[in-house]
Amino acid sequence: MIRVTLPAHLRKLAQVDGEVRLEVEGQVTQRSVLDALEARYPMLRGTIRDHVTQRRRAFVRFFACQQDLSHEAPDAPLPDAVATGAEPFMIVGAIAGG
Amino acid sequence: MSGVRVLVGTKKGAFILTADGKRERWDISGPLFAGWEIYHLKGSPADPNRLYASQSSGWFGQIIQRSSDGGKTWEVPGGEKMPEPYDPPASVSNKFVYDTSSETGKPLTTHQWYDGTPHPWEFKRVWHLEPSIKDPDTVYAGVEDAALFRSTDGGKTWQELSGLRGHGSGSSWAPGAGGMCLHTILLDPSNPNRIFIAISSAGAFRTDDGGKTWKPINRGLHSLHIPNPTAEVGHCVHRIAMHRSRPGVLFMQKHWDVMRSDDAGDVWHEVSGNLPTDFGFVIDVHAHEPETVYVVPIKSDSEHFPPDGKLRVYRSRSGGNEWEALTKGLPQRDCYVNVLRDAMAVDSLDKCGIYFGTTGGQVYASADAGDSWAPIAQHLPAVVSVEVQTLP
User: B102 vs B269, which has greater pLDDT?
Assistant: First the structure.
């Protein structure tokens, strides 16, 4: 079970209160987590990564285990603590003004 | 008793204001989509309970929202949470992809940037949603970078009407200060194949074949801020309005100049007349008097507030040129708000109601065709758009 935290605006859009818990098949990577997230919550498609290029939106960042994973390759394995559910994969909106 | 529903889009959410036909007591609901920019929301003429909203954010991009109960509840079309096993629908309501196919689109990859260099087309947001006159599931979207999209499935999927962006002049279009937006969509009630649109700052265009081909309709416009002031395209049109009984007569608020066309945009002539300044954004037409037109003059293109700190709506009862200031109930000192291009609307009650919103968060209404005004909301976030539905 993978744990994912969403920024407040996306929690509201997806109508979830706390963390999202997802089953991810195969290797746990940014791409597989986001694929699972968007499959469960289709309204989030396009809000985290571009529909066509699949690139992370500029003002969205990824963190886990006190590391900035935003610039890691989408298919790079996420830390074991994320894969085991010990730590959440955090999707964060950049602090960029009001 | 009939009533009105005012749909207000702001920089930080949407609000719905309702009143009965007297339009004296107002209920305000909202904010909907709090914290998001709501550039526009509008109801279907064919089904007043069907509303569409453009919700966007610099962080998370574009969202399309739809209501089927007059704004009480909303959904992302085709975006419902999926039960297991997850098999999301193929439709994606916020996917606006420019048509670059050789069959139906154009391999057009750039427009002009502010500095005159080529710049790739990039979707940024939906500025304006225009539901079909007859079909609640058909809706048009005007977007930045300028293009026109259409959905025929209630907003679940969108297809570009690429003949517009593929017009021969497309590579020379350039953004205005607010971006290169397609902000005005007028559907001709007498001719389903005729649509008018306007782009800042490319100008006005018209299709007579349902969107396949388009022609620029800017003859008569004169814009000193472009190299050729009478060019076929490049004019910063801010807003166009028509009266549904006379769709061949158009009124335009341009970057500077208030204009009129009596031949569906083929030729324009200036009707600024005695306005204190002919810069502004909004323009609209009285619901029952096709020659009665409203504008809100703004001091200049750099000073986006009313002249002399006095918020005045100007009304012409002669289709332009002769204008009277409407001031009763509006602030006549120290007022430095703006009224943005999509922030004026009229209802169809008798007397006609006029509504507009300001960047200061006020929404003003007149229940007597502009003779007197009162704020119906005073402390909202900056108002981007105002639409009105007249309810049975």
Answer: B269
CB B74 within 8 A of CB B134: no
Is A52's Cβ below 8 Å from some Cβ in B?
yes
Q: What would the two tokens of residue B180 be?
A: 């290169």
pTM: 0.96
Pull the structure tokens for residue B35: 């914290």
* Whole-number Å distance between alpha carbons of B124 and B146: 9
Determine contact, residues B225/B208, Cβ cutoff 8 Å: no
- Say if residue B209's pLDDT is above 80: yes
**CA dist., res. B40 & res. B238, Å (int):** 15
How many domains does chain B contain in total? 1
Q: With 80 as the cut, is the pLDDT of residue B296 above it? A: yes
Write out the residue range of the structural domain in which residue A50 sits: 2-93
Residue B18's nearest CA partner among B31, B32, B8, B9 is B8
A98 inside domain:
no
Chain B nearest CA to A5, separation (Å): 15
- Whether A37 is in a domain gets the answer yes
For range B301-322, the mean pLDDT: 97
Question: Would the CB atoms of A40 and B63 count as touching at under 8 Å?
Answer: no
CATH at residue A60? 3.10.20.30
Question: What's the domain range around B251?
Answer: 3-81+88-391
Nearest to A42 among B59, B79, B97 (CB): B79
Tell me whether A35 touches chain B (CB under 8 Å).
no
Structure tokens at A52: 């066509």
B60 touches chain A (CB under 8 A): yes
Test B80 with A39 for CB contact under 8 angstroms. no
Which distant-in-sequence residues (6+ apart) come within 8 Å of B85 by Cβ? none
Which pLDDT value is given to residue B104? 67
* pLDDT tens for each residue of B67-89: 999 999 999 998 877 776 667 67
Q: For B120-133, write each residue's pLDDT tens digit.
A: 999 999 999 999 99
Test the A interface: residue of B86, B92, B94 with most A CBs within 10 Å: B86
ipTM value > 0.90: yes
Cβ burial of B250 (10 Å; 0-12, 13-18, 19+) is buried
Domain count, chain A: 1
CA distances from A30 to A37, A85, B200 (A): 10, 14, 39
Q: Which two tokens stand for residue B73?
A: 């509840």
Establish if A80 belongs to a structural domain.
yes
Domain CATH for B300? 2.130.10.10
CA B70 from centroid of its chain's CA atoms? 20
